[in-house]
Design a protein that fits this description.
GO biological process, one term: chromosome segregation
Protein name: ParB-like N-terminal domain-containing protein
Order of helices and strands: EEHEEHEHHHHHHHEEEH
Number of strands: 8
Domain ParB-like N-terminal: 5-101
Pfam families: ParB_N (PF02195)
GO cellular component, one term: chromosome
Strand content: 15-25%
Shape: elongated
Number of helices: 10
Largest sheet: 5 strands, mixed
Helix content: 40-55%
CATH superfamily of the domain at 1-88: Conserved hypothetical protein from pyrococcus furiosus pfu- 392566-001, ParB domain
CATH class of the domain at 1-88: Alpha Beta
CATH topology of the domain at 1-88: Conserved hypothetical protein from pyrococcus furiosus pfu- 392566-001, ParB domain
């Protein structure tokens, strides 16, 4: 059995290991603090001994970030900790993931970020290898979902305001839209709406996703311009985006050229020429 220690909080480095949970939800954390204050800490954290102390830290945290954070906020000086001996960083990561899966859910975006960062740091060569190691009991369906999350995070990193708030359903819809060739049009819409926050971003891309799913692109060989066309970007500083709406479609004009009202008049004149009465 691994030994139980009572370590100074200052001796534990909470960032010695990659974390799948990048944010701590305030209300559950406050509830945990109240529980610890009233009844004490029921479950020790898990640590491993660092081969070389760093910045005063002698141990790295494997699992228990919320508990460590709560005890720190309560002013505790020490915390009970199980001393683990992982054979590798990858094994320590898998232990952390397993622990967190049984507690407060980790968002799909955070799972994807962990997989990608673990690959960047050289712990795994491919997303499939990372998923197999970090989620060894995952079903085939769960592994497929995790790969989809990785695809979304890879394509849309930096374009979303608070991606950790994306639900499973929305991550899956984004993944489907990306597979249907929607990366360019989604990226543009997300960047434009980013200053207004995630809710506004989702309102901007939801109709685009609906259109992509309802009308997959025609990729037949020899087609000069894939249909349907959803985005047109011209060198003159004009971007035209097609969006589905109730009863039909909208064409959204943006860019410096779009600020000139005469452009829209010209477009309407052309439409009237095509479809107006002779």
């Amino acid at each position: 059995m691994d030994p139980l220690l009572h370590l100074p909080l200052a001796a534990i480095d909470p960032h010695a290991l990659l974390r799948d949970r990048t944010t701590l939800t305030p209300e559950p954390l406050a509830q945990l603090q109240r529980s610890i204050a009233a009844e004490g800490l029921r479950m020790p954290v898990e640590v491993w001994e660092l081969s070389t102390p760093r910045n005063g830290h002698t141990h790295g945290l494997i699992s228990g970030l919320r508990r460590l954070t709560a005890c720190t906020a309560l002013g505790h000086s020490t915390i009970p900790a199980f001393l683990r001996s992982p054979q590798s960083v990858a094994q320590a990561l898998a232990t952390m993931v397993s622990e967190n899966e049984n507690r407060e859910p980790v968002s799909p975006w955070e799972k994807a970020t962990l997989i990608l960062t673990a690959m960047e740091e050289g712990h795994f060569d491919t997303p499939d290898a990372a998923i197999a190691a970090l989620y060894p009991t995952a079903t085939r369906q769960t592994r497929t979902r995790l790969r989809a999350y990785v695809e979304v995070a890879t394509a849309l990193d930096g374009t979303l305001a608070t991606p950790e708030r994306l639900s499973i359903e929305r991550m899956e819809r984004l993944a489907t839209a990306l597979r249907l060739g929607g990366e360019e049009v989604l990226t543009l819409a997300l960047i434009e709406a980013k200053p207004s926050g995630l809710t506004a971003q989702w309102h901007a891309v939801a109709p685009l996703i609906t259109d992509l799913i309802a009308s997959p692109p025609d990729d037949e060989p020899g087609t000069p311009k894939p249909r349907p066309r959803r985005l047109l970007q011209l060198k003159q500083g004009l971007t035209i985006r097609r969006e589905v709406c109730r009863g039909g479609y909208l064409l959204k004009f943006t860019g410096p050229e779009a600020r000139q009202g005469g452009l829209i008049d010209d477009v309407l004149d052309k439409v009237e020429e095509w479809f107006g009465n002779p």
